[in-house]
Amino acid sequence: MKDSEIPVTLQDWPLQEKDITGELCKKCGLCCELTVTPNTEDPRQLEFYRTIAENYSHMTFTDGALSIRCSHLRKTKLAAQPHWECSIYDDRPQLCRDYNCVSWAKVSNDTSRYDRVLEIAGLLPQGSGFTEELQGPDI
Q: Is the whole model's pTM more than 0.70, yes or no?
């Protein structure tokens, strides 16, 4: 068994659910983005996604995938590092209030977005991965 196949224990996670505060959540916006990859063998789907993206400013179609960003996200330049910010954070829907990126990373076993949250929180150098730190070399 490779080290990379050994599950990360919950206490090893640098950020826990309780650490996702309003302050961190407001300056992140990663959960407010979604990428949909259509069936590339069906040219009608590609054309459909391309047409949708042309009509909405919060959608882009590149590299055969449709990227959808919540229409309430606004890019801010007030901070030292520009980032996305929720313009309706205090009045956001219940679905957004209930979402916790740490819980999602643990349940889905997908740490790619979790790594980006760690970067935004300043707990992980840009480009390195949280799970890489814990995995060690292959056996």
A: no
Q: Which residues contact 48 (CB under 8 A, 6 or more apart)?
A: 38
Q: Name 40's Cβ contacts closer than 8 Å, sequence gap at least 6.
A: 46, 64
User: Long-range contacts: 11-15, Cβ < 8 Å, 24+?
Assistant: 12/134, 13/102, 13/105, 13/106, 13/114, 13/130, 14/118, 14/123, 14/124, 14/130, 15/102, 15/114, 15/117, 15/118, 15/121, 15/123
| Interatomic CA distance for residues 101 and 98, integer angstroms | 10
The answer to whether the beta carbons of residues 24 and 100 sit under 8 Å apart is no
Is the pLDDT at 11 greater than 70? The verdict is no
CA–CA separation, 75 and 28 (whole Å): 11
Residue 66's CB is within 10 A of a number of other CB atoms, namely: 20
Distance CA 125, CA 25 (A): 19
What digits encode the pLDDT tens for the residues 39-90? Answer: 778 888 888 888 989 988 889 988 888 889 898 988 877 656 667 788 898 9
What residues does 75 pair with on adjacent strands?
84
Please name the amino acid found at residue 57: S
